[in-house]
């Protein structure tokens, strides 16, 4: 897990994306919660000062929380302590300082972002759009209120992001790589290596006698982290779903009749037509084409003679066709018989020649025929309105400082208390996947602290929501030995076997490097081991397979010829021994496609490196002051290493 975390945090693309997006990430990723993650109010003292801007402890905690939430999408059990202790703290701090430095540098160069430009970017975010796809001021205000941030803070983040993009955009593009530089790298992709791999599984090692109580206790103490449960939280919640209003939201006969009357045109008998159309800019040319079509020439041939092509409109409705042409043209086309040619008639687009290819009469629908359809629409609308009204009522109660219990009582909801939950909503480490609603409730609970006001969290995709309050935080702690003694005993034996496998693999490795053939070295181990297997791969295959590349193959491409190395198998399954027999050098000369691909990849790396160097230069050009003592204190606190005191 820690390897995956480091890869997610420290990959070059990850660093560059984070550098560009910076502090706007909370908004751009759907208004992730930015409440504090510490056990109490964080200090407002500055950790970093750049120009006249300061980074406080609370602000850095907010950024760390956002970064952790994103990584939790792939690693739900990850907690803040693990995140900080695997390098996340330094990475996020560095990103934020880079952002502050680049913004300050941009301002020193006289760069500005207009308020209109910022507001335009905000309005384009899906997070702030209503059901009609347009910017919703109400949704914008509600989301900001939920996240306890102001519009000015959002605009400041957008301004910073825009300035940074302006600065680093050209830098990323400065990535031209000459062919001579790309050739040796392209040739390297064609390099081929051959060898053998042997395997010493732990199952081949005698497990030995049963461990003593002292051995088990010592092993448990030495490996406490292995048996530590991540942080859990007890959450109080009350769920509101649309179906809770099903009875009161039922459509009445009067409502159904009114809806039918309001949409009478939709249910009335109508005509649909298949039309062929030619639009010509010149009136005389249009008259010539119309005359040919009326004389029996096909639309396609008449249009082709003029260097044009007809368009077809299937199942055209009069109103829609009128919007695309004009009322006069639509009236004429829908009054003509099948096969008739209309025009030329003028619209803002030009002169239209229209031929009626087919006519379909669509029968009207009676009230009884659409009663069920209308009833469903009305019921859903009334459910959504009731849901929105109750949400607004609860939101108002929270704004008036109502407690969770008071808000639940006033809304006449059923309050529930969860079992201690992990961040992904499970109540047990090896439990089944939780109900999706409970998983969303757990996410909300982990975004709050016990002293925070209750919050509304979306549930599902139908507009449902839950009122959530974090009741209790259970810190990460090792499980009692008495509770997991059997597991610890099995782990002790497995660890003993793993050490035996390592010892056996080391002995085989030593013989290989002294010239003993692998098959003979394996046989002389005295263990029942699988026979050696051949390895044959090119370096290009490594990049194609990515994380799916077997460790022995990866190891083979980091070795010297006629040498052996060993590497651990995943999940403590044993050890592989790799012997590299032969290296065939590649030559990409004349392989234009591979060279071009390599140039592109190197160009991206060069561009990314330029961005990092540009950011470093910007930090030197502006005044960056770090409060190292405060930074170290906060890291220790979040990493579970704080000892208390000032």
Report on this structure.
- This protein is α+β, with helices and mostly antiparallel strands and 646 residues long.
- Helices cover 50% and strands 17% of the residues.
- The strands form five sheets. The chain has a four-stranded antiparallel sheet. It has a four-stranded antiparallel sheet with strand order 10-5-12-11.
- The protein is extended, with a radius of gyration of 35 Å.
- Residues 270-358 form the PpiC domain.
- InterPro entries: PPIase_dom_sf (IPR046357), PPIase_PpiC (IPR000297), PpiD_chaperone (IPR052029), Trigger_fact/SurA_dom_sf (IPR027304).
- Keywords: Cell inner membrane, Cell membrane, Chaperone, Isomerase, Membrane, Rotamase, Transmembrane, Transmembrane helix.
- It is found in: Cell inner membrane.
Number of domains: 5
Radius of gyration: 35 Å
Report mean pLDDT, rounded to a whole number. Answer: 83
The CATH topology of the largest domain corresponds to: Triger factor/SurA peptide-binding fold
Inertia-based shape: extended
Structural class: alpha+beta
- Going across the biggest sheet, name each strand in turn: 14-3-16-15
- In total, the number of strands is 17
* Fraction in helix: 40-55%
Write a concise synopsis of the structure shown.
Belongs to the PpiD chaperone family. By secondary structure, the chain is of the alpha+beta class. A 4-stranded antiparallel sheet has the order 14-3-16-15. A 4-stranded antiparallel sheet has the order 10-5-12-11.
